[in-house]
C-alpha cells in the first residue's frame, strides 16, 4: 500500500510541475502582413519579451509583455508603449491597437 501511495504522490507531483512549467508564448515567432498604406509590416517576437518591428521605415527593437489578451509593446523610437488586444488563430495573429494610433492588422506566421 505504501508503494502505491508513493507512486500516486510522485505522479501528482509530476503533473503539478508540468502544469507550472510556464505557459508557451503564443506570439513567439515572426509574423508579417501587407497592410496597404503601411506597406509590409513584420513583427518578430522572441518568446522572452524582446520584439523587432520592421516596415518601410526601417527596423526597431523593443520589448513586449502579455497579460491575457492584452499585449504591451514598447519600441525604441516610441515615446510610450502601445497596448494591443491580440489573438492567435493557427497561423494568424491579429493585433488591434487599443488607442487606434499604431499599426493594427492580421499577420501570417512566417
Summarize the structure.
By secondary structure, this protein is of the alpha+beta class. It has one helix at about 1-20; strands spanning about 30-35, 40-45, 50-55, 60-65, 70-75, 80-90, 90-95, 105-110.
Task: Provide a descriptive summary of the structure in words.
It is a single chain. This protein has 110 residues and is an alpha+beta fold. Helices cover 16% and strands 48% of the residues. The protein is built from one helix and eight strands. The protein has one helix at 2-19, and strands at residues 29-34, 40-45, 50-55, 58-67, 70-75, 82-89, 92-97, 105-109. An eight-stranded antiparallel barrel has the order 1-2-3-4-5-6-7-8. The longest helix is centred in the first third of the chain and has 18 residues, at 2-19. The radius of gyration is 19 Å and the shape is globular. It starts with a helix and ends with a strand.
Pairing-aware structural class of the strands and helices?
alpha+beta
* Spatial order of strands in the largest sheet: 1-2-3-4-5-6-7-8
Strand % is over 45%
Give the C-alpha Rg: 19 Å
Give the topology string: H per helix, E per strand.
HEEEEEEEE
**So how many helices?**
1
DSSP E strands, number: 8
Q: Approximately how much helix is present in the residues? A: 10-25%
User: What is the residue-mean pLDDT, rounded to a whole number?
Assistant: 85
Main sheet, how many strands, which sense, barrel? Answer: 8 strands, antiparallel, barrel
Distance N to C terminus = 53 Å
Ranges where pLDDT stays below 50 over 5 or more residues in a row are: 7-12, 15-22
Oligomeric state: single chain
Based on CA inertia axes, which overall geometry fits? globular
Amino acid at each position: 500500500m505504501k508503494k502505491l501511495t508513493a507512486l500516486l504522490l510522485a505522479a501528482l507531483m509530476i503533473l503539478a510541475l508540468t502544469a507550472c512549467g510556464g505557459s508557451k508564448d503564443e506570439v513567439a515567432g515572426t509574423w508579417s502582413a501587407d497592410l496597404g498604406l503601411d506597406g509590409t509590416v513584420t513583427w518578430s517576437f522572441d518568446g522572452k519579451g524582446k520584439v523587432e518591428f520592421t516596415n518601410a521605415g526601417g527596423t526597431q527593437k523593443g520589448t513586449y509583455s502579455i497579460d491575457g489578451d492584452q499585449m504591451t509593446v514598447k519600441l525604441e523610437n516610441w515615446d510610450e508603449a502601445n497596448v494591443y488586444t491580440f489573438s492567435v488563430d493557427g497561423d494568424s495573429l491579429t493585433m488591434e491597437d487599443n488607442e487606434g494610433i499604431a499599426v493594427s492588422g492580421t499577420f501570417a506566421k512566417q
